[in-house]
Each structure stands twice: as structure tokens, then as C-alpha cells.
Amino acid sequence: AQSVTQLDSQVPVFEEAPVELRCNYSSSVSVYLFWYVQYPNQGLQLLLKYLSGSTLVKGINGFEAEFNKSQTSFHLRKPSVHISDTAEYFCAVTRGGSNYKLTFGKGTLLTVNP
Amino acid sequence: NAGVTQTPKFQVLKTGQSMTLQCAQDMNHNSMYWYRQDPGMGLRLIYYSASEGTTDKGEVPNGYNVSRLNKREFSLRLESAAPSQTSVYFCASSDGLAGGGTQYFGPGTRLTVL
Predict the structure, then answer these.
(1) How far apart are CA B110 and CA A31, in angstroms?
(2) B104 contacts in chain A (CB < 8 Å)
(3) pLDDT at B98
(4) Which residues face B77 on adjacent strands?
(5) For residue B98, what is the DSSP state?
(6) In B74-97, which positions are buried (b, 16+ CB within 10 angstroms) versus exposed (e)?
(7) What's the CA gap between B34 and B20, in Å, rounded?
(8) Cβ contact, residue pair B105, A32, below 8 Å
(9) Which among B44, B90, B99 has the least Cβ separation from residue A95?
(10) Rounded CA gap, A75 and A62, in Å?
(11) What is the pLDDT of residues A63-103, one digit of tens each?
(12) Could you read off the pLDDT of B68-95 as tens digits, one per residue?
């Protein structure tokens, strides 16, 4: 079975600072990896995903993530955050192939302060 | 397109009451999912339907039943609600096969069981 660990439950940063949200996964087989964002009182929406190919994945709103197979990590980064990036971010993993089950991490609350 | 819609948005039940949460998608997706979100727990999969006519248990199926009414609709039923089922419930649908598809989420139903 796969699992996801988001190492920080809360990350406070100042506006225009860089940010990294950490995600590690465990799986004995090949995986697909996702980052979703949840703004207050809304459902989740996809930021980016890694299925195969280039290990650096670019998503919406200036976010990117790097798949590191040797370290089983998929950290999310943004070089300069805005107040509007305040939200909860979820890393998720599913097994490549026919498995439809997506396993989510517990989430990281990113708070961007002026 | 409305995407994924859920009804109701809010609901308060007494212990032992029953209710059905409705979900519909207009994106012609094959796969649909029900999750619950609790503080500090991330999202946990209750049931999913990989395609019309099939349903499977997720991580936390106890106390719930589902019906895939047709390709568009996937309902979640609580037969005898318990306070432990107080949560935010999200429905999602997916645009891809073999786990790599993006999941699109509804706005959620906030359920309180007294």
C-alpha cells in the first residue's frame, strides 16, 4: 500500500518570500504524484501532477514540484508567494496502472503574511 | 459546465437519522469518488466507482453505502448517522483511466451529527 507524509502541518511565510512544502511517499511500485490546493470553504483543485517523463513539473499559479525517486519525495516550490496563495495544500499518490485509489497526505496550511 | 455539484451544502442530523448526499458531474467522467475530510486527517476515501455499474470500498467505508445511479450521479447514504460521521464530505470525478487522471472536486457538504 502507498502512503504520503507531509512533513509540515503549517508553514507561515511573508509575501514575496520563496516557499517549499515537503512531501514524501512510500510505495513499492511506480507511482503517480499530485499536489492539490484547497482555498477556504472550497473543494480541492489540481495544482500539478507527475505521471512520467521530466522530473520537474510546472503547475498553475507559478508552482512547480520535483520528483525525486531516490529520496521518494515530491516537494512543492514557489519562488515568490502572494497573499492569495494562502490555502491548504495536499500531496497525493496513486499506484501507476489500474489502481484508482488516491491516497492523500494530511495537508500543509500555507499562510502568507503581508 | 457546472462541473461537480453536491447537495445539500449543509446538514444537521440527530444520531440515528438517515440521509443521502447527492453528487452529479457533467464532464462525462467514468470514475467518481466520495471522501470525508476531518481536521488534521487530510482526505480519506470512503467509496469509489471506477465506472458505471461498479463500486468499491475505500479506506473508511463503515457506516456508509453508495449507489452509482448512472454515469452522472453517485450518491452516498448514511443509514444511521453517528456523531463520528460529523465531517465535510467531498465528491469527485476523474477524467482519466489507470489512476493518472485529474480528480475534480465538488464544493463539499458540511454534515453535523448531534
Answers:
(1) 32
(2) 45
(3) 58
(4) B20, B65
(5) T
(6) bbbebeebeeebbbbbbbbbbebe
(7) 12
(8) no
(9) B99
(10) 14
(11) 999 999 999 999 999 999 999 999 999 999 987 665 567 88
(12) 989 999 999 999 999 999 999 999 998 7
